[in-house]
Design a protein that fits this description.
Number of strands: 7
Number of helices: 4
Structural class: alpha+beta
């Protein structure tokens, strides 16, 4: 029996790169853990992109950017992401275990000048009693939603629909044009 856990996910354009941790139970009762890197070329579904986009709120809030003032307890659930259109989530990395589990968000901000600021949040623990993140339960839910979409992509073939090219017979077209 094996268990697969998503540890990292990264979007590159509309393709996905994922680090998985596979734990295999051996016949002797022990276990072996393997790290797997998958570079996927099939286009990701819009639901996966939307799940990543929802993480923008937490990147902005965790880094205490100016726009974080727009996000509070009353607005987080139905926050209009168009206010954060200059931000982009590129990936996440889940680490720790049990009470020390948390995430690092990786993203960027594009300025009107066209320059890009790469952003890496500090490690945000879901259950941090010393320095709690105000929206840790919402962040955990958003990460779980993103992981779910990654798993749907990897294991359930939930991809974007790619328009196929229609091959035309070049010789046939020339004959039709001459007629």
């Amino acid at each position: 029996m094996s268990t697969i856990i998503v540890k990292k996910a990264k979007l590159k354009d509309r393709s996905l790169e994922v680090n998985l941790e596979e734990t295999i139970t051996t016949s002797g009762g022990g276990s072996v853990t393997n790290e797997i890197l998958k570079k996927c070329n099939t286009l990701v579904h819009d639901d996966l992109i939307a799940a990543f986009d929802h993480l923008k709120i937490h990147m902005v809030k965790a880094c205490d950017f100016k726009k974080s003032e727009l996000i509070d307890r009353t607005t987080i659930d139905d926050f209009d992401l168009s206010f954060l259109s200059d931000y982009r989530i590129k990936g996440f990395s889940i680490g720790g275990a049990d009470d020390n589990e948390g995430v690092v968000l990786i993203g960027s901000r594009e300025f009107s000048s066209g320059k890009v600021l790469n952003i890496i949040t500090p490690f945000i623990r879901y259950a941090d009693e010393i320095d709690p993140y105000e929206f840790s339960s919402e962040l955990a839910d958003a990460i779980n939603a993103a992981v779910y979409e990654v798993e749907q992509y990897l294991f359930e073939d939930k991809y974007a629909v790619k328009q196929l090219e229609i091959p035309f017979d070049e010789e046939g077209n020339d004959e039709n044009e001459a007629a």
